[in-house]
Structures are given as structure tokens and as C-alpha cells.
Amino acid sequence: MKKADNQNNWSSFARGYHRAQRALAGISKAWVGCLWALATVLAGSGTAFGQDLPDTATPGSAIWTGDSMIIWGGYKGNPPVVVDGGWSLEPVTGVWTELPTGAPISPRSDQIAIWTGKEMILWSGDNALGGYFSDGARYDPSSQSWKPISSTLAPTGRQAATAVWTGSRMLVYGGFNENLTAPFLADGRQYDPVADAWSPISMVGAPSPRRAHSAVWTGEEMIVWGGFNGASRLLDGARYNPSNDTWRSISIQNTPRPRDYFTAVWTGREMIVWGGPAMAYSTSVTGRDIARRTTPGHW
């Protein structure tokens, strides 16, 4: 495994970030935003990074383990070529370390990733050539080992889906597969890593078909909001409670403008959404409208 020490200063990273943001032009604002947020933490601790980023691409996935960030997959180039592999970043040292090879899944981009407290779970994605995956894998940083996850009863292959970790299950919702008659998806399932098994969730009252939406876990519910349905960006959503397998709608009063490919986080009390293209596809949200908060039920 390779390591890359990074001794660049903050201004170098800032220049690199803005170059990356212009290059991505809304394709993966959430990906850039993730790196930017982590860089802010590093800047406060006197550590910075930027020029020696691993040879990865967009839109890959990123998760936080509690002491490091792990990125995996993505694509680069024109025509696009998917990236096989990932890296971890230790903020204290500013050192990137390449993950072990041998992941039991094909190279891919636009997959989902969650952290269970012990493992990173990767699932779905596409090969940038019109192929969509319904398989996945688990990576344990402590043993630096990979293992596949079951594909039995897994959702249909897709990209631009969302996933949250409940503490015992991974909840998956929505996404896109252009090979289907109805390519924008409005279904979901839950995955139990202990049993290595998928099971259905109710679709009664679930959000309409969409991709590139957001999902956060409140401690009791998954909140799904925003996204794109093939005709327009969306400003609605719903809340799913796995304890009673039910959905309920959330208010659309005072919502942010419709958007997709944005970032959403749960603070412990409210959901904050940020950024993303809105309205016309070429228009990015700017100014005060890019951040809105919601407690469950109120914007």
C-alpha cells in the first residue's frame, strides 16, 4: 500500500479546491463539499492537504470512520474510465494511504457508501458505460480486509441512490437505471450485515421516483428530500420509520428551491441542506438560499 505525505499549505489547497469545483461544474458538488469540509477541520488544526490527492475521480464515495476519511471508486477522463480502488486520509498526520486491493466488486462510480462503526459498506453504482450494479462489498479497516455482501433479494442495480445507517441496518432508497422502462426509481430495501441479508421496506407513502436526492438518519427516521425525476428537480420528501415500517410526508412550506446533487447532514436536532444545481440544469444555487434547516416537520 502506498502512502503520500502532504506538506502543502492552506492557500495551495484553496486554489486546488476552486479549480476542482470549476472542473466538476455541479456534477459532484457533494464530493467536493466533503473534501472542503474536511479541509476546514484540518486548517483549524494546522494541517492542510490538497496538491497530493490520490489519483481518484468523481463521483466516487466518501465515508468518515471517526478518525479517518475513506474514499473509493469514481471515474475520470473522456471517455470516462472507472477507478478501481480507494484511499484513506488521516487528518492528524495529513497522510493518504492506499486501500488494499482485492475488493470483491467491479470498479464503479456513483455508488453508495455507509459506515457501520466497524466497516464501510459499498453498494450499487455504474461502470460509466451503461452498466448498473446490484452487488456490493464490505471493508474492515482494522483487518484491512474485504468481503462481498449478498445479492439475494438486493434492489435492482442503480446509481445516484441514497443510503443511511440506522445502527443495525443500511436503508437504501431511490436512484437511476437508464436500462429500465421506468429509469427513475421509487423503491428501497434494508440490508442487515450481521445476517448478510436484504429485506423489503414498505412503499406505501414513499417519495416519488428520483435520483441524486438526499437522505439523513435522525436516530429514529430516514428523511428523504429533493432530487431529480427526469423532468424537474424536486422540493418534496418523506420520512421513513423502520420500527413500524411506515412513511409520512414532510412539509413543503418554506422549503429551499428544488435541487439535486446537493449535501444534507443531520445535526442531532435538524437537517441542513446545502448547494446543488437548482431550477435550470446549468444554474447553481448561490447566496443565502443554499442553506435551509428542518426539524422533522418544519422548514
What would you note in describing this structure?
Helices cover 11% and strands 31% of the residues. The chain is mainly beta and 299 residues long. The chain folds into two domains: 1-107, no CATH class; 150-299, Neuraminidase. Strand 16 (214-217) and strand 17 (222-225) form a beta hairpin. The longest helix is centred in the first third of the chain and has 17 residues, at 29-45.
In short:
It is built from 2 helices and 22 strands. The protein has helices at residues 10-24, 29-45, and strands at residues 3-5, 61-64, 69-72, 75-76, 81-82, 86-90, 95-98, 112-115, 120-123, 136-140, 145-148, 162-165, 170-176, 184-192, 197-200, 214-217, 222-225, 237-241, 246-249, 263-266, 271-274, 291-294.
- The CATH architecture assignment of the largest domain turns out to be 6 Propeller
How would a crystallographer describe the biggest sheet? Answer: 5 strands, antiparallel
Give the CATH superfamily of the largest domain: Kelch-type beta propeller
> How many DSSP-defined strands?
22
Task: Name the CATH class of the largest domain.
Answer: Mainly Beta
Could you give the distance between the termini?
Answer: 46 Å
Mean pLDDT: 82
Poorly predicted residue ranges: 5-33, 36-48, 280-290
**Helix fraction by DSSP (H/I, runs of at least 4):** 10-25%
CA radius of gyration: 18 Å
* Order of helix and strand elements from N to C terminus: EHHEEEEEEEEEEEEEEEEEEEEE
Number of domain modules: 2
CATH topology of the largest domain: Neuraminidase
Number of helices: 2
Lateral arrangement of strands in the main beta sheet? 1-7-6-3-2
* Category by helix and strand content: mainly beta
Shape: globular
